[in-house]
Amino acid sequence: MLKYIDEFLNYLAVERGLADNTLLAYRRDLNQYVEYLQSRKIAEIQGVQRSHLTEYLYYQKKNGLSTTSICRGLAAIKTFHRFLVRERLAKEDPTSLVDTPKIWKRVPDVLSQVEIEAMIKATEGRSWQQIRDKAILELFYASGMRVSELAGMTMENVSLEGGYVRCLGKGRKERLIPIGRRAKEAMERYSQQVRGKLLKGKLSSDLFLSRLGKKLSRQSLWKIIKLYARKAKIKKTIKPHTLRHSFATHLLQHGADLRSVQEMLGHADISTTQIYTHVDRERLKQVHKEFHPRA
User: Fold this and answer.
1) Per-residue pLDDT, 104
2) Are residues 277 and 148 in the same domain?
3) At residue 110, what are phi and psi to the nearest 5 degrees?
4) Domain span at residue 143?
5) Which end of the chain is less enclosed by CB atoms within 10 A, N or C?
6) Interatomic CA distance for residues 136 and 125, integer angstroms
7) Can you tell me the mean pLDDT for 220-247?
8) How far apart are CA 116 and CA 91, in angstroms?
9) Active site members
10) C-beta neighbour count of 262 within 10 angstroms
11) What integer best gives the mean pLDDT of the chain?
12) Residue 233 belongs to some domain of the structure
């Protein structure tokens, strides 16, 4: 079965162009699934029945796995079994009649515009690091990119003259995102004053660089975001997508239409984007509760 997982992941990488992080998540979920089957003495894929899958889902729930994680794993398992049937590596798909557990869509945590401004203000200064970090925060908030997309940005992806960035998202789908005046100014300053010095004569197409002239990783970008959240004295829990969530929420609060926000975020399904309308409703409920005399 592990051999089949390798074939499946190769198919996802080549045919569907899934990102490395997505492939790692698929491998982790499928390895856990196969380990459970082997613990039940099921060594061949043809021996898997629907009852085994149901038992596996109960096993995960019993071990404290969240419904969201169970649903994510089940999606990987279903796609895996469909692949096996399509490639004639298995005769039947035992997952075909297994329903995905219902989950509530969680309203994402967002920062207020005041908090965003405080984070960006915390980068003010003349050092190379402050200039670079301001460009990172301005571009991140202006574009709503994923952290992995920001880490993958190259100089060729940025058109400061045109005022947009070209972003390669999930499934290697390309989208153009406008970035606005403030992000453009911060990017110009970084490009003109800092980036060349960090390269020290070397050649690189990577946009954001470390002090050693190497590409900043997702983890490094994440540390930078947390650093300026602390400097801005923000008490909220900051996650990698917090600025992305804030970008979408603030656009909708100021009257942007859902389709445009969907396109800028790179969501394949508009229902994913609709979660941000829930954020605004939650804010209105809080305002009503705080200020209405009979709330």
Assistant:
1) 46
2) yes
3) -130, 160
4) 113-290
5) C
6) 14
7) 91
8) 54
9) 146, 170, 241, 244, 267, 276
10) 19
11) 87
12) yes
Mean pLDDT, to the nearest integer, of 63-78?
Answer: 86
User: What distance lies between CA 134 and its chain's CA centroid?
Assistant: 21
Burial (CB count within 10 angstroms: exposed 0-12, middle 13-18, buried 19+), residue 98:
middle
CB atoms within 10 A of CB 8: 23
Residue 288 in this model has a pLDDT that exceeds 70: no
Question: What CATH code is carried by the domain that includes residue 50?
Answer: 1.10.150.130
> Please, which residues have CB within 8 angstroms of residue 137's CB and are 6 or more apart in sequence?
119, 120, 123, 224, 225, 228, 243
| Assigned domain for 96 exists | no
Helix/strand/coil (H/E/C) assignment for every residue in 106-169: CCCCCCCHHHHHHHHHCCCCCCHHHHHHHHHHHHHHHHCCCHHHHHCCEHHHEECCCCEEEEEC
Whole-number pLDDT of residue 287 = 61
Rounded-to-integer distance, Cα 40 and Cα 45, Å: 13
pLDDT at 295 (0 to 100): 58
Grouping H, G, I as helix, E, B as strand and the rest as coil, residue 280 is helix
Same domain, 44 and 136: no
